């Protein structure tokens, strides 16, 4: 992979904001609850290792990731807290995971049976978090019989498995309508009735549940999007003011020219000037994670909102500016520029998606700079 270390298109990440967001959440939590920092997908595009390190400093007791490699990257960086892989992992990685003390989500008996054969080669136990599917429809046990069978299997193989946790995930914790959320809680409690001896970690809360359903049970908060300062609900529910966005996306004017009435800009000539206009070219495109559908959106140059004209290219965009701005002028695509501001949510709404997808879409080609 090639990183863009010699260009002025950068994601600037304010580590203090991340730290403050974690500290703020920990203040809201009860004494016995622990915070696991969700750093999957390169820490939602913020850079997995720097974010994990600042999270550790701010008091995170563990980490959640999506894939084995993310967990191994954290271990290689010297982080020794609990690491839970939230997704299903291949059974043939069981030995590697056990030896690196990485915990895995398990949603069916078949995984345990498969993993057992691979655990012959190690004297380390594999740490298991049983996933309960209470309504997300993604991974996990859906009925008491299957859950019971899995717990019995773990108990019969105690020399190979460490039953460390049990968890579920909500589909609508970010919604003002609580009906489905409550249904999931009821299902969760019902499934939990077969768990005679509770494991160390019982967890249900993502950012949204932690923000708006503090009554929900569990001793771990899996803190994701709000650690990065964003609202999991978009704008449906209110995010407390204490949480602040950590990421800005900036570039600079690489070229400036004047075009005349009737001149067009970009592939497919989807924009034609109606008069003499100044057009600035900015070195960021859809290969950097700036979506192709952003034509027409306004970004900030010199404190002014300037429209993206013509199609977004793979590596560049063209922007109509009110006057001949200097080459090298800073451009803000996400973040503050003079008195004005663009949020990841503004970009997401324009692209008809959620802020999560915009953040984790920022590619390796965009250098992360930490302040
Ligand atoms: C990604 C994920 C989270 C974090 O969700 P946020 O909305 O970012 O807080 C928590 N739990 C599970 C199972 C996840 O997959």
Q: Which bin fits the share of residues in helices?
A: 25-40%
Ions and ligands = pyridoxal-5'-phosphate
- CATH architectural arrangement of the largest domain: Alpha-Beta Barrel
**N-end to C-end Cα span:** 24 Å
Average the pLDDT over all residues and give the rounded result. Answer: 97
Give me the number of helical elements.
11
- CATH C-level label of the largest domain: Alpha Beta
Broad shape: elongated
Which blocks of ≥5 consecutive residues have pLDDT under 50? none
Radius of gyration: 24 Å
Q: Give me the secondary-structure category.
A: alpha/beta
Number of strands: 20
Beta-strand fraction estimate:
25-35%
Question: Which fold name is given in CATH as the topology of the largest domain?
Answer: TIM Barrel
What does this structure look like?
Helices cover 27% and strands 26% of the residues. By secondary structure, the chain is of the alpha/beta class. The protein has two domains: 197 residues, Alpha-Beta Barrel (TIM Barrel), CATH 3.20.20.10; 124 residues, Lyase, Ornithine Decarboxylase, Chain A, domain 1 (Beta Barrel), CATH 2.40.37. The strands form three sheets. Strands 1, 10, 11, 14, 15, 16, 17, 18, 19 and 20 form a ten-stranded mixed beta sheet that branches. Strand 8, helix 9 and strand 9 form a beta-alpha-beta unit. Helix 1 packs across helix 3. The longest helix has 14 residues. The model has no long low-confidence stretch (mean pLDDT 97). Its EC number is 5.1.1.1. It is an enzyme of class 5 (isomerase). Pathway: Amino-acid biosynthesis; D-alanine biosynthesis; D-alanine from L-alanine: step 1/1. Belongs to the alanine racemase family.
């Amino acid at each position: 992979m090639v990183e863009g270390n010699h260009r002025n298109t950068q994601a600037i990440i304010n580590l203090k904001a991340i730290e403050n967001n974690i500290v703020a959440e920990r203040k809201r939590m009860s004494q016995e609850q622990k915070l696991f920092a969700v750093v999957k997908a390169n820490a939602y595009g913020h850079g997995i290792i720097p974010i994990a390190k600042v999270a550790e400093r701010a008091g995170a007791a563990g980490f959640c990731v999506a894939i084995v490699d993310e967990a191994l990257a954290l271990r290689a960086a010297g982080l020794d807290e609990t690491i839970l892989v939230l997704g299903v992992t291949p059974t043939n990685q069981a030995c590697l995971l056990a030896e690196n003390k990485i915990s895995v989500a398990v949603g069916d008996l078949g995984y345990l049976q498969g993993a057992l054969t691979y655990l012959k080669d190690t004297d380390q136990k594999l740490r298991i978090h049983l996933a309960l599917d209470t309504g997300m429809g993604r991974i996990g046990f859906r009925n008491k019989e299957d859950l019971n069978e899995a717990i019995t299997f773990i108990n019969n193989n105690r020399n190979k498995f460490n039953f460390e946790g049990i968890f579920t995930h909500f589909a609508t914790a970010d919604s003002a309508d609580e009906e489905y959320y409550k249904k999931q809680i009821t299902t969760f409690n019902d499934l939990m009735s077969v768990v005679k001896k509770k494991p160390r970690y019982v967890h249900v809360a993502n950012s949204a549940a932690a923000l708006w359903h503090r009554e929900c049970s569990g001793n771990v908060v899996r803190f994701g999007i709000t650690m990065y300062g964003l609202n999991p609900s978009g704008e449906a529910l209110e995010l407390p003011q204490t949480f602040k966005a950590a990421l800005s996306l900036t570039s600079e004017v690489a070229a400036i020219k004047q075009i005349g009435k009737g001149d067009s800009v970009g592939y497919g000539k989807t924009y034609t000037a109606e008069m003499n206009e100044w057009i600035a070219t900015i070195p960021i495109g859809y290969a950097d994670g700036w979506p192709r559908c952003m034509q027409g959106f306004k970004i900030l140059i010199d404190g002014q909102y300037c429209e993206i004209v013509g199609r977004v290219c793979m590596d560049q965009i063209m922007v109509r500016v009110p006057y001949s701005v200097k080459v090298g002028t800073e451009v803000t695509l996400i973040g503050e520029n003079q008195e004005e501001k663009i949020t990841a949510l503004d970009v997401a709404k324009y692209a008809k998606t959620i802020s999560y997808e915009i953040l984790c879409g920022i590619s390796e080609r965009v250098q992360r700079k930490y302040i």
